[in-house]
Amino acid sequence: MSAVFSPVAEKWICEPCGMIYDPAEGDLDGGIPPGTAWVDIPRTWTCPVCGARKRDFVPYDG
Amino acid sequence: MRKVDHLLIGGGIASATCAQTLREEGAEGPVLVVGRELDAPYHRPPISKGYLRGDQTPEDALVHRDGWWEENGVELLTRSSVMSLDAGERIARLQNKEEIRFKTALLATGAMVRRLSVEGAGLEGIHYLRALGNADSLRRDLAESGAERVVCVGGSYIACEVAASLTELGHACTLVMQEETTLERGFGSRAGRFFQARLEERGVEVIGSDEVERFDGDGDGDGDGERVRRVITRGGRVVHADAVVVGVGATPDVTLARRAGLDIGDLGGVAASASLETSAPGIYAAGDMCEYDSVVHGRRVRIEHEDVAVRQGATAARNMLGHGEPHRDVPYFFADLADWASLEYVGPALAWDEEIVRGSLDEGAFSVFYLEAGRVRGTLSVGRPGDLDEGRRLIAAGAALTSSESGALGSV
Known about the structure:
The complex is a heterodimer.
Chain A: E1 11-14, E2 20-21, E3 57-60
Antiparallel strand pairs in A: 1-2, 1-3
Chain B: E1 2-9, H1 13-24, E2 31-34, H2 50-53, H3 58-61, H4 68-71, E3 74-77, E4 82-86, E5 91-94, E6 99-107, E7 111-113, E8 126-128, H5 132-145, E9 149-153, H6 157-168, E10 172-176, H7 184-201, E11 205-207, E12 212-217, E13 228-233, E14 238-240, E15 243-246, E16 250-252, H8 255-259, E17 270-272, E18 283-285, E19 290-294, E20 299-301, H9 306-320, E21 332-337, E22 341-346, E23 354-360, E24 365-372, E25 375-382, H10 386-397, H11 403-409
Parallel strand pairs in B: 1-2, 1-6, 2-3, 6-18, 8-15, 9-10, 9-15, 10-11, 17-19
Antiparallel strand pairs in B: 4-5, 5-6, 7-16, 12-13, 13-14, 19-20, 21-22, 22-25, 23-24, 24-25
Helix pairs in contact in B: 1-9
């Protein structure tokens, strides 16, 4: 399986603002260390750019 | 590798205005705008005003109407981020790995909301406002949850505007803020009291000199998650809340600039010269994250307001074409508390030791000139827009007024 399809590398995009969550970057200000897969982010996490909820993100294939 | 003349990074109004100015000034080569937003650039001020109240559609908020981009030969790439920038080689690498070589670039990556990190900040029903989609989520949540009481956190534009807008929609709003008086940080307590009175007479409860200690939920962690029910303040107040809107400021998004090795200023923005050029030749900055040497103010300033982004985008465009001109605009701000009160302001005054009032606060038509050591640094106007030009002129001149001149300011 290629790394692109691994859940750990899967990117998600915030529908309200377009912020792209990249597991390689994480979100340190939001308490999410680099390397954190999307599934492991708590549901209470909010978008670092616009404050949207985790459920406002959709998979990003760019 | 693709080559463009001008690469505009950021999908907001600074890039949109920059693109427009480039074409108006005769740029004929390829212009590419890369923005992470899912939509074309739109105006943000309606998010807390008319759009939130349902008076405006997403189309109303667009900076350029459908078709403008094609007609003007500007390529707009939405849903895309520039991941890295080689400032020396002038090559940008996009999220999809595509590389773009550019002659000049604009960095206009905007700002990010400041998230509260107190206990309970992740509860359902707690909202922020930055994008049109956030306003959609807020309105949908208020409708679906049947929320009546909304607590707005913050004492500046966003929280005050949202409190007014949601009161108009029939919600009972409470403001919780660190400030003693609304909007006092920008305009002082005298003008601040005027705006607070407009909020209070429409039923907004204002809790000042306090801040959020934590949010309490309803204890129901099942289903869609536990929902916020109370705001507990450091001062010991318990405020019932069916929903919360947090408006406690923003931080410039300098992630890309930092990664590219550009200088970052003391105010947290990308450091730029008077002509808005960053520490990397050929790369300019505009908008919320632009911290520039202002010839008007004689110091570094960084301002988060739409009109400033518009004008900086235009200045940057001219300088990308080699004009080499300093950004000379006196920054302009506006805010609306529903249709109860509208303010306009030029400045900003960071500090002042004298306020001269023209007109009447009691009658709701007044201007306040903010002076520092006899020099006008800012001018606020409510219902007297004609005074703003005088304020602009005095701020730009920067000269100390004589006592008779300053006395005349208040007596017109």
